[in-house]
Write a structure and sequence with these properties.
With 189 residues, the chain is of the alpha/beta class. It contains 7 helices and 5 strands. It is globular. The N terminus is likely disordered.
């Protein structure tokens, strides 16, 4: 989605597709989008990250599948289920190294649709692999919290790409967060 930017990215939206809803569940894919809260309304998603992950590698480090989530995946659209057959999937340690390299190329705040879900599961995966998370805890932000506290349920979410694709969902959430903040006339710090 590499669109032109007006400023250096200050933030990154992260989205995970997983086989559970708690820390230490397998991660199927990591998606992220670097963006800023520039004054224009154009997309300024500077660059993005996507990596599918092999289930076997998650299980080998002790991550546990939630049966209910597995059943939920079986009801999703085929385009979303493609993550299970992605030929570019790599092991969890390699995916975390790639995400760390992407992350370390710029200092940013890290956003999730729920900080506890995305960052919590991602941090648990780093721990299971004996690796350090690349962001500071004080940089974690929650997209859902800003929307709920501001009472901006009236700003619709406009879907980008495939629903339940980690990269596309990260971009969707970044775009929505920018619209919410613009409507509120705030720039997160």
């Amino acid at each position: 989605m590499n669109a032109p930017t007006t400023a250096e990215p200050t933030d990154a939206m992260v989205d995970l597709e997983t086989l559970g809803t708690e820390p230490f569940c397998p991660i199927l894919s990591i998606g992220a989008c670097a963006f800023d809260f520039g004054p224009d309304s154009a997309l300024t998603c500077a660059d993005d990250f996507y990596q599918a992950i092999t289930l076997e590698s998650c299980l080998s480090v002790g991550l546990r599948v939630d049966a209910g989530t597995l059943n939920w995946w079986m009801e999703q659209e085929p385009a979303a289920q493609a993550v299970f057959r992605d030929p570019r999937a790599v092991s969890l340690p390699l995916a975390l190294d790639a995400f760390t390299d992407w992350w370390n190329s710029r200092p940013m705040r890290i956003w999730g649709n729920s900080a506890r879900f995305d960052m919590g599961i991602l941090a648990a995966a780093y721990k299971a692999c004996g690796k350090e998370i690349p962001w500071r805890w004080s940089k974690e932000r929650c997209h859902r919290t800003i929307c709920n506290l501001a009472g901006v349920g009236g700003i619709p979410v406009e879907r980008f790409g495939v629903h339940h694709n980690a990269r596309d969902d990260a971009i969707t959430q970044a775009l929505h967060l920018r619209r919410v903040c613009a409507a509120l006339r705030i720039t997160p710090q």
